[in-house]
Structures are given as C-alpha cells and as structure tokens.
Amino acid sequence: MFVLIVILGLIAAGVFLTGLVRGTKGAFSEIADKENAQPEGQGHYASTAFVAVVLSAITIAAAGIAPIFIYLGPILAIGTALGVGLAFLTEERRSVR
After folding, report:
1. 74 in a domain, yes or no?
2. 3-state DSSP call for residue 81?
3. End-to-end Cα separation, the chain, in angstroms
4. What's the CA dihedral at 80, 81, 86, 89 to 10 degrees?
5. Which letter does DSSP use for residue 56 in this model?
6. How confident is the model at residue 41 (pLDDT cuts 50, 70, 90)?
7. Residue 41, helix vs strand vs coil
8. Is residue 72 a part of any domain in this protein?
C-alpha cells in the first residue's frame, strides 16, 4: 500500500507542478495585458467544497474505526493535489480583445 501511495503521490505532484507552471505563466501574461483583460467570472465551487468537507470528516471518523483507514488521509491529500493541478491545466483562457 505504501508503494502505491508513493507512486500516486509522484503522479499527482507532477500534474500539480505542471499545472502550477502553466497557471503562473497565464497569470503573468494577464498582468501584462491588464488594460485589456476581461473581468473574472463567478466560480461555482460550493458543491465541491461541500464534498471535500464530507470526505475529510469521513476520513477522520474512519481512522478511528480501523487502522487500515489511516491511508485515506494521504489518498485524500493526493486527490486534492491532483484536482488542483487538473484545474490549472483545464482552465479556460479568457480572450483578450
């Protein structure tokens, strides 16, 4: 199980770092074109935040039930890093007029 978590962690770290670099470059290019930048839209993240809170609570509760569930914490953290990296990679670029 440890080896699997390490491999998944390395994959998630690679996706996260790739997305972070892309997102940072995009942010700097938007700052450079600040005069023509479009206003940011409203995000709809309440449902994903709710799911994250519920999964965290389940993880904490499950760790008290059986020792095997202690692995849920790292898996949840890896999933979060992977999700953030994918969000950077799939974000829509605003068109600059």
Report:
1. yes
2. helix
3. 51
4. 150
5. H
6. low
7. coil
8. yes
Distance, in Å, from the CA atom of 76 to the CA atom of 12, rounded to the nearest integer, reads 11
| Max CA distance (Å), the chain | 57
Retrieve residue 54's tokens: 């519920």
Is 0.85 surpassed by the pTM of this model?
A: no
- Based on its alpha-carbon atoms, the radius of gyration of the chain, rounded to whole angstroms, reads 18
* CA 22 – CA 43 distance, rounded (Å): 20
Report the amino acid identity of residue 16.
F
Q: What is the pLDDT of residue 9?
A: 93
Q: Which structural domain range is residue 73 located in?
A: 47-91
CB-CB contact of 38 with 94 (8 Å)? yes
pLDDT at 57: 92
Q: Do residues 20 and 83 lie in contact, with contact meaning Cβ atoms separated by under 8 Å?
A: no
As a whole number, mean pLDDT of residues 34-62 equals 77
How many structural domains does the chain have? 1
pLDDT of the residue at 27: 81
